[in-house]
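This part of the workshop introduces the protein records we will be handling. Backbone structure tokens are a discrete shorthand for how the chain folds in space. Once this layout is familiar, the rest of the handout is easier to follow. The record below serves as our worked example for the rest of this section.
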Amino acid sequence: MAGRRVSKWVVAVPMALLALATVYPLVFTANVAVKTRREYVLDRFSLADALRWDNIAAAWTSVGMSRYFLNSALVVTCSVALLLLFGSMAGFALARLRFRGSSVLFLGCLAALFIPFQVIMIPLTRVMADAGLVDTYPGLVLAYVAQFLPFTVFLMTSYYSTVPAEIVDAARIDGNTVYGVFWRIMLPLGRPALLSVGVLNALFCWNDVLISLLMMPSADHRTLMVGVTSLRGQYSDDIPVFASGVLIAAVPVLVVYLFLQRQIADGVTAGATKG
């Protein structure tokens, strides 16, 4: 019993420290967001004297955060929809259809996961500029799809590989075509993985700064995260307002994760084992 108690403490203490290190930046940001500029300059680590929402209102209205929020919502929704459509179809094909080169294609998706975006950002920008897609919503959506599609295909292929082959064979015997098997059988069965992958891709796209900054250089088309960076510049150092912008950008992500954390974990681990 004593050994078990010691082992529990050995695990609990590092996990508690990790949780504290994760939560503290959010608490610090929220505390700074409700401070006045004077309070922050005098003591940035002390608690705010009162809850003030002036900074959040200023961050929302000063640089057009409401427009940036809508831009991010539009781009993320379209990007995730295309990622789920193409990723699920490719995952089904690689997992259940036997054709020449399928293994090479799957290895290619795995290899693409290890290529940093900084390696391809210049060629991607040149291609998008030549196609006239820079500073357009379709251009940013296509950039997100190209960047995060290998991850989506990998997870969907892993999940569909766990579906018993007898289900697919029975559907084919009943007269379903390949498209019928996918739309009527595999797509409904893949809902847990689709939900997990969709949430993860939404978080990736929502939190992105570099791709959005390259594809959307004009101020009117900025996404929310790029708009937050404009709250602090060479001639502006109002840290409480900047912290309020960061908080505005973080709240949707936190809400999604808090309500869907179990589904995210189940979807990610669903394809980890065969059976």
